[in-house]
Write a structure and sequence with these properties.
41% of the residues lie in helices and 16% in strands. It has 11 helices and 8 strands. Strand 2, helix 3 and strand 3 form a beta-alpha-beta unit. It has 253 residues and is α/β, with parallel strands linked by helices. The structure holds 2-phosphoglycolic acid (PGA). 2-phosphoglycolic acid binds next to strand 8.
Amino acid sequence: MTNKLKYFIGNWKMYGDFSSLKIIHQIQHFCIGFKKYNKKNKIILCVPNTLIYFYATKIKSKFISIGAQNCHHHQSNGPFTGSVSASMLKKSGAKYIILGHSENRSEGDTNQSIKRKIGSALSQKLIIIFCIGETFNEKKEGKTFSVLRKQIRSSIDKKYNLNKIIIAYEPLWSIGTGKIPKVKELKKIFKFIKNEIKKIFKTRYLPIVLYGGSVNQNNIRMLSTISEIDGFLIGGASKSSKKFIDIIKNYYK
Ligand code: PGA
């Protein structure tokens, strides 16, 4: 992976069925015609577990990869009703996996369990999209950097292969609210995250860091001016092929 690529990652959350394949087909069709930028883009759609195998076998596209949205921390089979392991997701055709999403943190994921999930997914050669972000109260209290530092340091082990981890900065107060941080704030936060990773890993390699939270076809113009942002994790707008495609188009306008 290289930082020169721009990532457009859809997080479908609990949405979609077999007929939603048409959304992916429309995105694929757009990619085929978008020759000038294709080599610069990486498009990943993280879909519900029930659709991974179906989409992965139907979509034979070099432009689009399929990802999962969460997994159980346990590596092998076990008595965990309703759960799936990273290995099951990998065998279904997932190449990427979102871990640490705030919606899963609010249902019980902790920095420690996320660390185990990351380890388990890495062992299956899945590429991790690791979500971090502060709440509105934490932001108001000036705790953004300390919260992010703790999330990063508690969940990323120095032994992990940094090439296989993409960070997604998603302030909780931005997810699904239509609100996004100011350009100045984002620049500072992205520099902070990249420096923090450099410090932990004692590396000069700059990690891939995405922004997520209410990204849409309008605010993407403003977000595209921030060179520190390597791509976007897109929730609501990724369920519509038109909105998702317009985000990519407007990014390059
Ligand atoms: P949103 O969701 O784009 O709908 O705000 C982003 C996310 O939860 O990943």
